[in-house]
Write the structure tokens for this entry.
Amino acid sequence: MIIGNFVFKDFFFKTNKRKNNTLQCIYIFFLSLLLFYLYLKASKLELGFDFLTNEAGFALANQWLTDYTPTNNRIDAYVTGVFNTIRLVFVGIFLTTFLGVIIGIARLSSNWLVRKIATVYVEVIRNLPLLLQIIFWWSFTLALPTIKEYINLFDVILISNRGIALPTILFFENGSIIDFVRPVVTVAENTVVQYTAGFVISTEFLAILLGLVIYTASFIAEIVRGAIQALPKGQTEAAQALGLSTFQSLRLIILPQALRIIIPPVTNQYLNLTKNSSLAVVIGYSDLFLVSGIIMNKAGHAIPMFIIIILTYQSMSFLISLAMNYFNKKVALVGNR
Amino acid sequence: MNNMLYQSKTWLIENLFSSKLNIALSTFSIIFAYYFIASFLNFIFISADWKVVDVNLRLLLLGPFPKDAEWRIWVSIFWVTFMSGLSYKHLSTFHLKHLMNLSPLILFILFLIDPIKNIIITLLTLISFILFVMGYNFPYERIPKFSKNSFILFGWAITLPLIVIFLKIFGGVETTKWGGYFLNIMLAWVGIIFGFIVGLILAIGRASSLPAIKYSCTFYIEVIRAAPLVAWLFFAYLVIPDLLPGFFAGKVDIALRVMIVLSAFTAAYIAEIIRGGLQSVPIGQVEASKALGMNAYQTTSLIVLPQAIRAVIPALVSQFIALWKDTTLILAAGLAFRELLGSGKSALAQFEFIGRYNEIYLFIGLMFWIVSFGMSRLSYNFEKDLGLNRED
């Protein structure tokens, strides 16, 4: 018995490697059991991708670079959603960086009032749920005057609760290189009032953009502030001693060095912004999540649709990380490359 | 008097009007701040009609929670305030200043909720405040052989199960009847505790030297992080009932599904944060503990984890705050389940209050802001006590 016990112990647990392999085998056994069970359960659901080629049959409010109609198939609908998300993320990242850097610098301003305003902004915005902010901005855009009583800013910008109309820029048309077409509001015979010319930004897009930009900017501002504070104070003092103005020392001395610290955490914020853009679903901006939600409600097939959603978001995140890593290498210290 | 005038004049010149740029910025900021504060105060005291909050207060705070079961929530509140009193003394010394900072908020809440009309709420709030003071002045020294630390830790550890018991005993309330602010608090609490435990296991798993465990943990973390939380909530709503074994089918209601998803989602992010902490522990620490004859379990739990978690407390707390804010997302996922924001939307759908969204959103924002800000302050104090250096 003692010998048997010894042999048993020796076989399984004497060397660390053997013990580890045994542990892993047990782990893999249970994991595959779980996966097999999940597969059995899931195989009763629909797992094919054929449903995507059927006719979509629903209209989408927002479009960019696509001409989608309800008679197109579901792939076209999804692609329209992806393009809408890309537009939102692209514009959002650009504006949020701009606003975030300004507020981050303002938090360290020598001006007491500017500093306090920036601090209040950051502490208020960052502690409120993003969804609440988006819904608030949506209510705000809906409370704009109706299109019959639109606000006219110098005939260049028209504002109403149907959206903001900006001039369209035409290249190489009407015989000139660059031409601007002013936005126009037309009243048709059956009293339908709408924008008939100009580049129209819809209220849904405006609301989700405002929400995302203002929210993410508060996080970027904190990153920028932390990065500037992490720089040695001698850098600012040396810039002052050289006679550089505040703006010059920021642009030439402080920000280029702070950029090295800023980029990795800001990349993370860009990824958050990309994922948060799915909140557009609450206000009906037709982003990829809204479109796939409609498809799932109409046709079922939750699991294949979900695989597509995960892959889409993951590839967008991958592209952003790739671009930011390239940028990070550009600004890295030469010795650290 | 003259001296004071001179001092304030130099302060103004130094802080607001030191250069041409500063003069321009100050003028612009003064106009902006004046306009903003004036319209804000005007809204709160003059143009706003707080009746919408007053009438719907129960809906906003408790949702469809049965009225005759409200004592369950009050008992939970009493327990939590008592525990807060106990730990408040332990965390930091009590200053009147802390209460002074909160006074505008307290005044605002008194302004919203008429304390004389809602006399029962006022009395019960007073009782919970007395319990806070009692906890604060708890006579530790009279009880022999009593460890303050372990008592507080034990108290907080049993708090969540205790609340669930308070809510469930004597024919309690079903989770489908939970709602409002109370639901947000419960979801965030469950998510934080289970998310932290699972996240810790995942982080250790990802740092493991065994490839099977390492890669499966990595796969889980990366897949969960790939899609947004709204998508996972939606997924849970659609798919989890189909994947569970037959006898669970009726038992996994929406509340439980949301709790599972919030925990599973937070766990992936917490695992990544703790992994960062694990990487910051010098390898010499592990080698030293091995040299002392500790086994793998002792090394991890006594040497590596305390240092790793200590290094990432700020990131962990911001993840908890993110989870707290993300409890609103069940509205976005379209679940028929009313937390604070959802209750606010249904209050706005009432005919007499259409268009009163500013009042409702301000109230909801305030309720969320208090907890988020409180959590970030608490973590700030905690870090200072631990001696972690931090700017500002």
